[in-house]
Amino acid sequence: MVGPIEFHLPSVSSTNDYARELLGSYPFVYVSAQHQTAGRGRNGRTWHGDFGTNVYCSFGIRHADSPSTEDAASYMARGALAALDVLRTLAPGTVFRLKYPNDIQVRTEQGWAKIAGVLVEHEYHGTRCVTTTVGIGVNVGQRTFPDTIGQPCSSLVLLGVSVDLPVFLSDLRDRFTQARSRPWFEIHEVWVRELDVLGKPARIAGMHESWTMHRVLQDGRLIVRQDVTQQERTVTDGDTIRYDD
User: Fold this and answer.
1) Are 233 and 176 in the same domain?
2) Statement to judge: residues 48 and 71 lie in one domain
3) By CB count within 10 A, which of 58, 108, 120, 242 is most buried?
4) Is-contact 227 209, C-beta < 8 A?
5) Residue range 170-228, pLDDT digits in tens
6) Is the pLDDT confidence value at 64 over 50?
């Protein structure tokens, strides 16, 4: 599969926004920046990071044919798996895992900490998905993190791993391009295996009940089961899942 047209910038408001604009002229783009002034994550959260020390990038895809619901949903997995593969290659002695739905965590002496996140945004014309933008942020050289993140964070430099940012970006480009060429059901199978959540306990922020992660649907939604009543519930975009480990 042909790789993306690349754009590497000193600063941008959001690599996702810039990539989406470029899709008016190109079918597949890869945008990276040394800094974002208005980076964001899920549920309107901001993504903060120091200038020139981390990975801030986005892949933009203009679909020739509207993808199925399952294929569109698999782009979250494609982005997460690509970043996970690069991290494992660059830090082979470190343990990483995917956390549903869009985080990558690393095991530290203090416990699990976030080291990367993925934000996928689709643009629709009616019921037809016309573009998909996959934003990926990785903490590479960051040493301190704002309290607003709401969870423990780490970075490759704090783990004692030295990384050349251009090498990371080129590896990520290649991994994502390869993942994009694979059918959604293969990606989904690998994603569910890497999530490794089925049958494990979890909490939903703001709720007192205890839940067990029951299954991951083909469209990416997680179904949890209440431990006492056995009632099932779909985890929505507004929910925050916390693992009991």
Assistant:
1) no
2) yes
3) 58
4) yes
5) 999 999 999 999 999 999 999 999 999 999 999 998 899 999 999 999 999 999 999 99
6) yes
Which residue type does 78 have? R
How far, in Å, CA of 109 to CA of 128, rounded?
46
CA angle 20, 84, 220 (to 5 degrees): 65
**Which among 159, 178, 195 is the end of a domain?**
195
Coil vs helix vs strand at 201 = strand
**188 DSSP assignment:** H
Instruction: State the Cα–Cα distance between residues 115 and 34, nearest whole angstrom.
Output: 17
Give the pLDDT score at 43. 47
Bridging pattern class, strands 28-33 and 5-9: parallel
- Asked if the bond preceding 146 is cis, omega within 30° of 0, the reply is no
Are 37 and 80 members of one domain? yes
Question: Which of 195, 217, 235 is the C-terminal boundary of a domain?
Answer: 195
Token duo for residue 189 = 């199978």
Phi-psi region of 226 (alpha: psi -120 to 50; beta: other; left: phi over 0): beta
> Quick one: which of 46, 39, 48 has its CA closest to 18?
39
Question: How many distinct structural domains can be found in the chain?
Answer: 2
Q: Which DSSP string corresponds to 88-149?
A: HHH-TTS-EEEETTTEEEEEETTEEEEEEEEEEEEEEETTEEEEEEEEEEE-SS-----GGG
